[in-house]
Design goal:
The chain is 29% helix and 30% strand. With 252 residues, the protein is α/β, with parallel strands linked by helices. The protein has one domain: Vaccinia Virus protein VP39 (Rossmann fold). Helix 2 links the parallel strand 5 and strand 6.
């Protein structure tokens, strides 16, 4: 049996959990605590995060993309493969060790993507880049946690709440696209995105190539030219009740 080798480890920013990088034969995996976050064997959905978003925007010479969460670099590589020479990809990765791993043992996986001259790396919370990036991005691609329920860091809940969604809406250029990766579906999160003012698609994609294996979910949210004003908690509850009522009468 080929052993699994621990290559490195790092604390998550809140200090509550430990991120670990392992190698097993030719494969790599990153885990938090006892839960596997990602593996180099299953990266189709990370690539789909870029493909599904960028095919929904008009790609120009000055296209600007924000990637929140570097992972193993697969989303970054997929974006670079379709963007022109003068485009800019801003990567926000909160954990410095993940950037170091992508420059080191993981570099070959994504074709040394961090060395591309179009890439700008910031070792900060993606939330900071979003808050200070009003009207700056054609696309925002987020893979910062396991999904709206969160796993690796409680601070990531901001991205899935009303405050984060409104900030991301403001950070997009007209007709911009927000794409978010999740391990599974979340109906309530879809509704929050719609209430904020996005046109939303929830797309199931395979975790790896082929017809077998787990599915992940990618939300593709197109910015409306006339976005809704910020919604209150009571408006969200009212929206849920109206949706439940419509579904009830449709089923009769």
């Amino acid at each position: 049996m080929i052993p699994q080798i621990l290559l490195d480890k790092a604390e998550t920013p809140d200090g509550g959990k430990e991120l670990r990088l392992y190698q097993h034969d030719k494969d790599f995996l990153i885990s938090v605590g006892n839960v596997q976050l990602m593996s180099s064997r299953t990266h189709e959905s990370e690539e789909a995060l870029a493909h599904l978003a960028l095919e929904r925007i008009e790609i120009k010479e000055n296209t600007r993309v924000l990637i929140g969460g570097l992972g193993m670099g697969f989303t970054l590589r997929a974006a670079l493969d379709v963007l022109p020479a003068k485009a800019r990809v801003v990567v926000a990765e909160l954990i410095p060790a993940v950037v170091k791993w992508n420059r080191g043992p993981l570099a070959d996986l994504a074709g040394h993507a961090l060395e591309d001259s179009r890439v700008e790396v910031h070792e900060v919370d993606a939330a900071k880049m979003i808050r200070h990036g009003q009207g700056r991005y054609d696309a925002i691609l987020l893979d910062v946690d396991n999904g709206p329920a969160g796993l690796s860091r409680t601070g990531n809940h901001w991205f899935y709440g009303l405050s984060g969604l409104h900030a991301m809406l403001a950070a997009l250029r007209p007709d911009g696209v927000l794409a978010l990766w999740s391990a599974g579906p979340d109906v309530e999160f879809t509704r929050r995105m719609e209430i904020v003012g996005f046109d939303v698609e929830s797309i199931r994609v395979r975790a790896r190539a082929g017809k077998k294996g787990a599915h992940h979910v990618i939300w593709i949210a197109k910015k409306n030219r006339n976005p809704a004003p910020p919604a209150s908690s009571s408006e969200i509850r009212e929206g849920r009740n109206r949706k439940a009522s419509r579904d009830h009468w449709k089923s009769r």
